[in-house]
Amino acid sequence: MAADMLANTRVGFIGAGQMAEAIARGLDKAGVVPANKMCASDVNVGRMKVFESLGTSVCSSNTKLAETSNVLILAVKPQVAEKVVTDMKPSLSKDHLLVSIAAGIPISKLQDWAGEARIVRVMPNVACMVGETAAGMSLGKTATPADSDLVTTMFESVGKIHVVDEKLLNAVTGVSGSGPAYIFMAIEALADGGVAAGLTRDVAMSLAAQTVGCSCLSSP
């Protein structure tokens, strides 16, 4: 990733929920984008205060966010995404990169809503919150190789990401999006076995979680 591209990157979070917070923390901790070059907008005042505590600035509106940022991360609930993005459309241009982490919204819709903005769609998973996401991303028609490199660098600050055709994002969801729930079930089942054998619940759960974590780290 060219240093000048990162130097000119200002990230705006449309929505300041926990996933957005995890990404912001990762970007700052990894030195990819410092907190003072990030901004957030959210209707929840409490979430805005969380971002302020990270050292980021906050914007009073999404329009202001677009004016101060060239990379916008759409991190709102899918059911409100259309209104949020269409309201911003007059403020968006080909100079904006819109990175959507809103689940289930295809690039074609995002492009219609966002006008000239370049689109990248990302499917992260819950492990993003501990800096270990397993994500897939797909590029819109006007997104460039440089955009791909930039988004890859950003999300590698909170785990791993792979470029896939958009038609395969459902498969990504099946593997890494839903996968943690199955792993949690496996951990619980292991712990249940330990309890049945006489261990206390806390000891059994700790052993099961550590075993799964170490097995993942030692796998090829």
UniProtKB/TrEMBL annotation:
Which terms under GO biological process does the entry name?
A: L-proline biosynthetic process
Q: Which residues form the Pyrroline-5-carboxylate reductase dimerisation domain?
A: 166-213
The UniProt record lists the Pyrroline-5-carboxylate reductase catalytic N-terminal domain at: 10-104
In the record, the note on similarity to other proteins reads:
Belongs to the pyrroline-5-carboxylate reductase family.
Keywords recorded for this protein, A-Z: Amino-acid biosynthesis, Cytoplasm, NADP, Oxidoreductase, Proline biosynthesis
Source organism of this protein record: Ceratodon purpureus (Fire moss)
Give the classification, highest ranks.
Eukaryota, Viridiplantae, Streptophyta, Embryophyta, Bryophyta
Q: Tell me yes or no: is Nucleotide-binding among this UniProt entry's keywords.
A: no
Q: Name one GO molecular function term.
A: pyrroline-5-carboxylate reductase activity
UniProt protein name: Pyrroline-5-carboxylate reductase
Q: Which Gene3D superfamilies match?
A: NAD(P)-binding Rossmann-like Domain, ProC C-terminal domain-like
